[in-house]
Amino acid sequence: MLDPIPRGKNRYTRRQWLETAGAAAIGTTWASRLLAAEPAEDKQVEKPALPMQIGLLLGTISRPTFEARLDALKEAGLDVMQVSLGCLGGPDMPDEISAELSARICREAAKRGITVAAVQGTFNMSHPDAEQRRAGLRRLKVLAAACAAMGTAKVHLCSGTRDRDNMWRRHAENDTPEAWRDMLATMREAADIAKESKVVLAFEPEVNNVVDSAQKARRLLDEVRSPHLKVTIDAANIFHAGELPRMREILDKAFELLGKNIVLAHAKDLTRDGDAGHEAAGRGKLDYDRYLALLYSSGYRGPLLLHGLSESQIRPCAAFLREKLARIGPNSR
Fold this sequence. Notes:
Elements: H1 14-25, H2 30-37, E1 54-57, H3 66-75, E2 80-83, H4 99-111, E3 115-120, H5 130-150, E4 154-158, H6 177-197, E5 200-204, H7 214-224, E6 229-233, H8 247-258, E7 262-267, H9 288-297, E8 304-306, H10 314-325
Parallel strand pairs: 1-2, 1-8, 2-3, 3-4, 4-5, 5-6, 6-7, 7-8
Helix pairs in contact: 4-5, 5-6, 7-8, 8-9
């Protein structure tokens, strides 16, 4: 028989006693009835973690100071970046980097919970003037030596072009043996620099450069044969003129050849082939479902870095990527 009136400070109210009696009559306990009636605690429901973190090339944000750029990155809801030293008011590839500057990058990023995924180290590795290539290598050595102090172990770069004035403009001599020879020698020396500084170089295949396809990227990896040389993939940059109708085939082949060597991934879009993409992610023709599924199935779990967009597009593009990434899983391919 129920004891309707417990002793001490935990005495039931008359209403609770009545509820208890009723509960007993229908074969339940008052305790379970009372718990069920209590409002659930206001708990924050955690969303499943995405397979890749969304970040940004910091140069997308324009502010008077480096710190203000970082604040804007956080305000946009992102906490991963690829940084260029130009964001601190100097050249992207300086002749020297002070210990104070390196420490500032690391300190200010850490203070805000921002990860430095990579530092920009691009120079024209295929320039027809050997002195231009040597100058780039000298600056790369300075940059690589400062990476640890900046809080990263990756340097992003591209292979360059034979164009003397613009390394993003395709040149008729890009496909010559001489262009490949010069670029290969520069890349080998760059890989040695990376080994010395214990960093990884992540080069990006780009249609206007000497390494303009996944096939040439694979050839470069095989010829350099260095664990310090890896790949940045930007799927908007690998389609030559007339190749968009074969997008799925070209994407699949690129990941077949390079998937296990990818250490950075960029996210932008394209409206036409034969040139690098210049559109914000999700605003062009790139099959993002396929691109992200291939990244996932290749084992990539690094950052997905937005660029080629305006500041006003950062939030909507990040939301676009989050929505796509939320669908990614073991059977997504």
